[in-house]
Specification:
2 domains; 4 helices; Metallo-beta-lactamase, Chain A; 3-stranded parallel sheet; 6-stranded mixed sheet
Amino acid sequence: MLDDGTAELIKAAGGLRGIAVSHPHFHNSMVDWAHTFGCPVFIHAANSPWVMGPDPSVHFWDGERVELAPGMTLIHCGGHFPGSSVLHHDRDGGELFTGDTLYVNPDHRNVTVTYSFPNYIPVSAAEVRRVANAVAPFEVRRLYGQWWDAVIPDGGKEIIRRSAERYVAAIEGKYDEQPARRIA
């Protein structure tokens, strides 16, 4: 939600040039934000059925990627929602802003992909591979997840790769349960 204090703080810091919405959980207030800051909202077209209030500020994009500005790329991943997307920033070895498309686990050493986190409904092995493959071409040092403390400060690319392999192995019944051989 957006209140006057938050809006003033953001305006004092330079405002917003655009808003990238990762998936429908954020659709309820995005137009208020866009109008307050006079900027567009970018949503992957696969999530358009969840946009209940059309507005000129909402811009649907299609395809696998869209560059919003030099070094800032939205990447279509799918998984959590058909149009789930993440934002890659190419500074400092690569930063990936994932929302809960790639959910940072409490250990901050693994990520996961889930259709419904509150209901513990997984996605398929194919979806996990799709998400991991979508971000694989990008350098990712830091990963910023779903909450302010869900940060992986280093090694993000390898953590995504390893986490996807682990998840797929578990879904396919190939996960080695031996504690000494278990991937943490």
